[in-house]
Design a protein that fits this description.
The protein is α+β, with helices and mostly antiparallel strands. The protein contains twelve helices and 40 strands. Strands 32-33-36-35-37-38-39-40 form an eight-stranded mixed sheet, with helices on both faces. Strands 14, 15, 16, 17 and 18 form a five-stranded antiparallel sheet that branches.
């Protein structure tokens, strides 16, 4: 097809900001009761709330039902990043869901086929949202849910206690707070509570400051006596070992995901009658691949033991697949689906031949497939989408398919000849191309975390730029997950150095290849990526402008002003306090504001507890009278990350307007005034 040449950045595109906002309605956290499959789904067009949806795998023509209507919002604030917000159980009238309501963080019980509205299960806290609950599981008798409870006890973000508790399903705890029973109180942070199949033991993962869960955790096991954990034993983990998940294979055997060998691999633990480890853990799949990921959210399931003895597992390097592991041989048979990215959110549904499920559920995507709930048959390997039935997509088609980029996973050479992983999204339009004598602008995307990863999946936010003639490269800089523990630990003590160097190296490599215009390079990022973007603008001359979203800008202030989970994160990222005080001050963009000369857009949610807006205010005060063109947009009602349609649209418009003004091309986005 012949394309019409137009300057890069000015190509007309149907992928507008409204389409991007709508595409943020993504599913997550699938779960099931027999043939009934549930999931949570974000709804930007409904104020950013999280709805609960359900369908049935035995009725492929049955439409998806929104079970939890507005304004209910199934979202937990444990660790501020949240996690699995609901659990399913059986009631007299059918399925029952217990969920965390975002507004007050109480647990509610709802039987959608019989109840008019949800009923509270936990007491109303004296201070709003002081009690929070996550990673719910059904209790051993079926009359309770067990979960991690987080209690905020004082005025500072670190005044927090956590425990594993049992909440009765009869609603008595809503009236009598003492009805919530403490099952286990252990380490400062708790995750992954799991009951053994016989209901006699409980396992969980714990860790303490200053460690983060991808650095060092302990797997704990305890017998249960009168509904409480006793005689707690450590069975895996340690000073330099991260256990991120454990599931029971039988009453005496655990499958745990640990990086003791440098990669998160599944291991089998055999327990003795007294709770100790009977023999050395067995690595079920000794591969240089990840079968786990960072515990930013509670409730992740990368592996799931099945009744037939196999283990369903999400695994890979950079990209991920769904495989079935044979523990005896270590062999893996991957599901034959077109998806190239699976999230750690596995579940099982259906009656199956063993009565324990005939279908594996997960959330998956690909560069040309938006995230969807996928059901894979254990009998024949067949698959289908539950959240987006194929019949719908075949009838309507994807209106943006021709404007999607064709990404490529690349490995670049960074400083000291080290590898740097990145996903490159060249500009692409079916109708337009750039002039022969012009190279396109490129924007480097720095992901958050910084212990995270940019997956290569269907993303209309990327297409918003690439379809207009602006290249995007998502850099998985040193410190990212998906490439083994040594790659993760390259950031140890080097935050603000390695991440910036790697972003610069990739940008310069694209210039040297002739793929990018050296005079039109930008950088953008949110949260920890916002830190990297701001640090790059303050410390290098590579980028002509940048987009900084809900960033960390002042390390010393962030250490005491952020939430509990990350309050000691700098211990590994920069160095132990107070020894690293000077290093923190030297690297913080707020203290290097006078070095920033490139225009930028700063975007911030006003209810952000992780990266509070006061850092942005102090950064801008330091820039006063520096004559640096910039725009500062704040958003009421937004926390860490943008969820509302109006916010997503405004943020994209501001970003595109910045590039148009700095790089000199026409655009259809409303002009955002850059003030000096």
């Amino acid at each position: 097809m012949t394309t019409r040449p137009l300057p890069y950045g000015s190509w007309p595109s149907p992928v507008d900001a409204a389409a991007v906002a709508r595409s943020e309605a993504t599913p997550g956290w699938p779960g099931a009761l027999d043939e009934e499959v549930w999931w949570a789904e974000s709804r930007p067009t409904e104020g950013g709330r999280v709805a609960l949806c359900r369908t049935r795998i035995d009725r492929p023509d049955e439409p998806v039902e929104t079970v939890l209507p507005a304004p209910w919002n199934a979202r937990t604030r444990v660790h501020e990043y949240g996690g699995r917000p609901y659990a399913l159980t059986r009631g007299a009238g059918g399925s029952v869901v217990v969920f965390s309501e975002f507004g007050d963080q109480r647990l509610y019980r709802y039987a959608p086929d019989t109840d008019l509205r949800p009923a509270p299960l936990t007491p109303h806290p004296e201070v709003a949202c002081a009690h929070r609950y996550a990673e719910l599981i059904e209790g051993p008798g079926g009359d309770e849910v067990w979960c991690v409870r987080e209690v905020h006890t004082g005025p500072t973000p670190t005044d927090v206690t956590r425990s594993i508790v049992a909440v009765p399903l009869d609603g008595s705890a809503a009236r009598e707070p003492d009805a919530v029973r403490t099952v286990a109180r252990d380490h400062h942070f708790l995750a992954c509570p799991r009951l053994s199949p016989d209901g006699r033991r409980l396992s969980w993962i714990g860790w303490d400051h200053p460690r983060m869960p991808w650095e060092a955790t302990l797997l704990r096991v305890a017998p249960l006596r009168d509904g409480r954990a006793v005689a707690v034993r450590t069975v895996a983990g340690g000073e330099d070992e991260s256990v991120v998940q454990a599931e029971w294979m039988d009453p005496a055997t655990l499958c745990c995901v640990t990086d003791a060998g440098g990669w998160w691999n599944p291991h089998q633990l055999s327990l003795s009658d007294d709770g100790g480890v009977e023999r050395e853990p067995v690595n079920l799949v000794r591969r240089p691949e990840e079968f786990g990921g960072p515990l930013w959210q509670l409730g992740r399931r990368w592996v799931l033991p099945l009744r037939d003895g196999r283990v369903a597992a999400v695994h890979g390097r950079a990209s991920t697949r769904l495989g079935l592991v044979a523990p005896a041989s270590g062999g893996i048979v991957d599901a034959a689906t077109p998806h190239t990215e699976w999230w750690g959110s596995l579940a099982v549904a259906g009656s199956g031949s063993g009565g324990d499920g005939g279908t594996v559920l997960g959330v998956a995507a690909a560069p040309d497939i938006a995230p969807e709930v996928v059901a894979v048959s254990l009998a024949d390997g067949g698959w289908r989408s539950l959240s987006r039935p194929r019949s719908d997509s075949e009838t309507t088609g994807d209106p943006y398919a021709r404007w999607l980029p064709h990404p490529e996973a690349r490995v670049f050479t960074g400083a000291d000849e080290r590898d740097v992983h990145a996903n490159v999204y060249p500009p692409r339009s079916p109708e337009h191309s750039g002039p022969r004598d012009e190279r396109p602008p490129y924007v480097v995307w720095a992901h958050g975390g910084p212990t995270g990863r940019s997956p290569m999946v269907y993303d209309l936010e990327v297409a918003y730029f690439t379809s207009r003639g602006i290249g995007v490269v998502a850099v998985n800089y040193g410190g990212s997950t998906g490439f083994g523990r040594p790659y993760r630990e390259r950031l140890r003590g080097n935050w603000g150095v390695v991440d910036v160097q790697d972003c610069v190296s990739v940008a310069r490599a694209l210039v040297e290849e002739g793929a990018a215009d050296p005079a039109r390079l930008a950088i953008r990022g949110g949260s920890a990526g916002g830190w990297t973007a701001a640090a790059a603008l303050a410390g290098t001359s590579t980028f002509r402008c940048g987009t900084i979203k809900f960033p960390v800008l002042d390390l010393a202030a962030w250490r005491t002003g952020t939430h509990d989970l990350e309050s000691h994160y700098l211990h590994s990222l920069v160095g132990p306090w107070p020894d690293a005080r000077q290093r923190c001050e030297d690297r913080s963009p707020v203290n290097r504001a006078e070095s920033v000369t490139a225009p930028f857009v700063l975007l911030q949610g006003l209810e952000d507890e992780i990266c509070p807006p006061d850092q942005c205010d102090r950064f801008l005060r330091r820039l006063r009278d520096r004559q640096v063109p910039h725009a500062y947009l704040t958003f009421e009602g937004e926390q860490h990350g943008f969820r509302r349609e109006s916010t997503i649209r405004a943020a994209l418009h501001a970003e595109l307007s910045l590039y148009a003004q700095v790089f000199g091309f026409a655009t259809d986005a409303p002009t955002v005034e850059l003030r000096s």
